[in-house]
């Protein structure tokens, strides 16, 4: 199919992406503010132009499913959307408008610790810059990177993959965190065995850190009282601050507003804390705003330890 013909199908591609992401013509139509019949027509025209079926329409399915051809097209569309975003960013800069759009995916704890200062400084230096932030676990961040929904991912435990380019990493120490009136609060370092008998607030089973802690305590013969578990480290820290138990975290926080929490380094652990990593998809041209963000992260990682 000639490239000029493909370019003529850009409206159809936009509709295709929405249908693939939403799983139905009606949901895609709602997102695009058009009639479902208009979406259906665009998809049919696109299928006729490409001479393939993009969706399976078998009765009895819970929703639309992509065919193999549809999956290939959706994967390639992510690159198309990324390049169009970059083109808009470059055109804006060429016109002296100093605009840009930075799309980030970030783990929750880093969203509150790292981002406020970085984005404040970027906004000061580039007043026309705006941001879209998705706060999610690392698996979902990787999926958004692959689909072209975000430019940069920031989090823990990124998988080793040739399609993911690591811009910067930071290895952080492991700490027990306590309220300021806890007997352990005045100590600088403790061993895992020193936590025996403590009231502990754990991350829940959806977070990889939980398994590391459970196995380490079993190996050391440490018995603690679990008073709470949560998938939110922000809530975990608030509960520690309130005094209902201690928590275990990777790294000190970089917040602008410091919480009333004491950090006590945990020594002689049978595992290394996973590094914080800043990543993007390899082989895609980065936007100017994502290059600036990567440079800011590298500077902080060089300056900051643990």
Automatic annotation (TrEMBL):
GO terms for molecular function: DNA binding; DNA-binding transcription factor activity. SUPFAM superfamilies: Periplasmic binding protein-like II, Winged helix' DNA-binding domain. The keyword Transcription applies. InterPro entries: HTH-type_LysR_regulators (IPR050950), LysR_HTH_N (IPR000847), LysR_subst-bd (IPR005119), WH-like_DNA-bd_sf (IPR036388), WH_DNA-bd_sf (IPR036390). Keywords: DNA-binding, Transcription, Transcription regulation. GO terms for cellular component: cytosol. It comes from the Bacteria. Residues 13-67 form the HTH lysR-type domain. The keyword rRNA-binding does not apply. Belongs to the LysR transcriptional regulatory family. This is HTH lysR-type domain-containing protein. It comes from Donghicola eburneus. The lineage of its organism: Bacteria, Pseudomonadati, Pseudomonadota, Alphaproteobacteria, Rhodobacterales.
